[in-house]
Each structure stands twice: as structure tokens, then as C-alpha cells.
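Pipeline run #58 for the internal structure catalog. This entry was flagged by the ingest filter as a single-chain record with no existing model, so it goes straight to prediction. Upstream metadata was stripped on purpose; only the residue string is passed forward. Reviewer on rotation: M.T. Logging verbosity set to normal.
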Amino acid sequence: MASVVHAQPGSGARFDWGLTGAAELGRVCAVLVVVDVLSFTTAVEVAVARGMRVHPFPWGEQAADYAVRVGAVAAVGRRQTSAEHPWSLSPAALGSAPLVADLVLPSPNGSAISAAASATGRPVVAACLRNARAVGHWLLRHGYGGTDAPVGVVAAGERWPDGTLRPSVEDQLGAASVLDAISGVPGGLSVEAAVALAALASTPDIPAAVRGCVSGRELIEAGFAGDVEVAVQRDVSTVVPVLRQGVFSAG
């Protein structure tokens, strides 16, 4: 069992990594902010901005069955799209795909974290570089950030082949961008949040860093440079996707 100190008590904004970190912060924080820049939360922002409702779902073949049960369309892997089924985790593709009312969007990191966090009953917000400032404003406007209503910011990270967490540059920078927007919260930042925020000061060109990091290069080399270019746009959106009752819609 985790120690109480693992939840970073006494601060208004806290930071952790991955599914386990989200579970720990979810026990005590009033709201969770999930950051998965490449590409889940960027895809959520794009879809919700177009008026879609997004259902997060853990990565796996069961997503299609779940979509049938809830009357939604299931997104597929980037390489499984077709002219008849263009919906995938690709933010670039979702920007031009036909509109659907409800989209099931599976991913192994951000979506799995969001789906698990929804069980807490607390609001879960999808943040990325595109809407970090808007998310910060939304949190402050709703009174989050005091020690009695702390914010938990979770960088999703990636996975090593053995399934363990691989902390990722793009998600640390995305989380730091949210923390920057709420750095003046009355409860202050935890040490972990302050250290995460420091990444911004040492990264003069955020888009270049995301393009050049492992995850960015992986997508670019796989032929999905357009997804990276959508993801590196900073503060171009005022949309704040909030997960309530298992569905992301505009907050």
C-alpha cells in the first residue's frame, strides 16, 4: 500500500506519472488532469472541438464491442483506417474525418488512465499543448487548487516493450504547461509539480523538443508527421474536454 506522502499532501497542485500515479492522486485530488500529447489527449481535444463525445477505453479488441453497446463508432489503429472507417487515434485524421456523435477512442496510456480515473467519480480533464492554458483557466475558475480541492496533473508517459512506464518528454512538457497556467494556486505546487514545471524554463523551443524527442521521432518516421504538427501547436484551443459519466465533452 502506498504511503500517504505519495499523494503529495499539503499542496494545491500535484504531479505524477502513469496509471499508478493517477490512482494515487485520484484518491485525494478533487480533479485529475490527464496529459497524453502523442496522442490521446490531443485527439480528444480535436474531436471534442468538432462536437464529438469521446468515450475513453483501454487498448484492445473489446473497444469495437463496447462501441456497439453504447451506440458509438470505435476508432482503430492508425494503420487500420480505410476510406469507409477513417477514425483513429490520429489527431490529424480526426480533424477531417466525418463527424460522429460518439467516438470510442482506445489507447494504451492516456485513454486507459482516463477510463480508470472515471471510476473515482471526480472530474477528469484532457489536456495537451493545444489547450493547456485554457485548462488552467478552467481549473482556476472552478475553484480548484486549494489544499481542500487539489489538482492532480498526470503525465501519461509511454510503455517499454515489457509494459513498464517510460516517462516521455512530450507529456512532461504538456503537464508543465498546465502547471504553468495554475502556478499561482493558493495551495501552491508540490515539489514534484514544481520540478515538472521547471522543464519549461529549460526548453526554449517546445515544438522542436516534441518533434525531436523519442515519441515524436517515432511517429514522424512511421509516416505520421501530421499528428506531431497538430500536437505541437500551443494554446490554440479554448476547448476543455471534461470526462463525466465515462464521456469526454466540452467543459
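catalog note: The longest strand covers residues 53-58.
catalog note: The chain has eleven helices and eleven strands.
status: ready for reviewer M.T.
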